[in-house]
UniProtKB/TrEMBL annotation:
Keyword Nucleotide-binding set for record: yes
PROSITE patterns for this protein: PROTEIN_KINASE_DOM, PROTEIN_KINASE_ST
Gene3D superfamilies: Phosphorylase Kinase, domain 1 (3.30.200.20), Transferase(Phosphotransferase) domain 1 (1.10.510.10)
Record organism: Oryza sativa subsp. japonica (Rice)
GO CC aspect terms: plasma membrane
Protein name (record): Os04g0369300 protein
Length: 345
């Protein structure tokens, strides 16, 4: 292997190392599959890692690709999955991340919807706060990093259900202006659909949708393709928000906190997005709400995700790691029209 820029902590792995670590890309090593490739659990020098194959890039892009990854390797935050290095000796670059033992927020939400677990309001707000802090950190770097595909499947849950934002590597490598939209139905900012220009406010919008999911227990798009954001706005307008909330967290003692969290979500979803709060502001408010006395009175029972078997409950691929949902990728004009309709105000 070869180190890049000395103490940066970025490693260029060679082809043999990757093939050996993945059992020559054995199916038994696969821990996720999605629109941007396959993810393998592997062992490199005695360290458990996740190896993801990105989309194919041409030779002229490889230098810029490595430069971007070197920047990403410098990101050090307890709520961000650590990027360790890559291998460029395949058609599609192989990106090596730290391995996170548990599952994803998507899976936790699916379990909550099926009533297999009870996830307290405090746990939901803490996971939201940690995720917001991770995004705020990315946005505030000297070389800001925009995620571009914020969704529950890209928030891993480590031991103790600690949130770790993942899959922010490929988004920053794309051109700033894209010919076609990328992202996930239900989470894409309507502003982004107008010009395909990625900004920090797009991440804020997507995060707002996640916050709604945590409060309501509902999916971002219903089977009828109706968006959760439009249902939320109607509930606010007609003073029926309580009916939309997840019954597992509705409690008279915590309604003040719930309404404050709902108003924060509303601010994140404002269109146009110029007046949306920065992720730093969102994170600070969520941390305050998560630590509120009325929330802390209800401790979370221990939840263990790694040994559970998950099933498909609504068309999406569960047991997903590092952007392994059915989304993330390129959408045609027909899908764009569906998205635009779903986000109609």
């Amino acid at each position: 292997m070869m180190k890049v820029e000395g103490n940066v902590g970025f490693t260029l792995f060679d082809r043999v190392q990757i093939e050996t670590a993945t059992g020559n890309f054995s199916k038994t090593h696969i821990i996720g599959e999605g629109g941007q490739g396959t993810v393998y659990k592997a062992d490199l020098d005695g360290v458990a890692v996740a190896i993801k194959q990105c989309k194919e890039i041409d030779e002229s892009m490889k230098r810029d690709f490595v430069q971007e990854l070197v920047i990403l390797c410098r990101v050090n935050h307890p709520n961000i999955v650590k990027l360790l290095g890559c291998c460029l000796q395949f058609k599609g670059p192989m990106i090596v991340y730290e391995f996170v033992q548990n599952k994803t927020l998507q899976e936790l939400l699916d379990l909550q919807r099926s009533r297999r677990f009870h996830v307290t309001l405090g746990t939901r707000l803490r996971i939201a706060a940690e995720s917001a802090e991770a995004l705020a950190h990315l946005h505030c770097l000297p070389h800001p990093i925009l995620h571009g595909d914020v969704k529950p499947a890209n928030i891993l849950l480590a031991e103790g259900l600690i949130a770790k934002v993942s899959d922010f590597g490929c988004s920053t490598i794309d051109e700033e202006n894209q010919a076609v939209p990328k992202g996930t139905p239900g989470y894409i900012d309507p502003d982004y659909l107008l010009e395909y220009q990625l900004t920090s406010k797009n991440d804020v919008y997507s995060f707002g949708v996640i916050l709604l999911e945590l409060l309501t227990g509902k999916k971002p798009l219903s089977k009828e393709r109706r968006s959760l954001t439009s249902m939320f706005q109607e509930a606010i307008a007609h003073d029926t928000l309580r009916e939309l909330l997840d019954i597992d967290i509705v409690d008279e003692a915590s309604m003040r906190v719930i309404y404050r969290a709902a108003m924060l979500a509303s601010q994140c979803l404002v269109v146009p997005g110029t007046t949306r709060p920065a992720m730093t502001v969102v994170a600070e408010e969520l941390r305050r709400l998560a630590l509120a006395d009325e929330v802390q009175r209800c401790p979370q029972s221990p939840l263990v995700l790694e040994d559970l078997s998950f099933t498909d409950t609504g068309g999406s691929t569960v047991s997903i790691w590092y952007n392994g949902s059915q989304t993330s990728g390129v959408y045609n004009l027909e899908k764009k029209a569906v998205l635009s309709t779903g986000f109609a105000r």
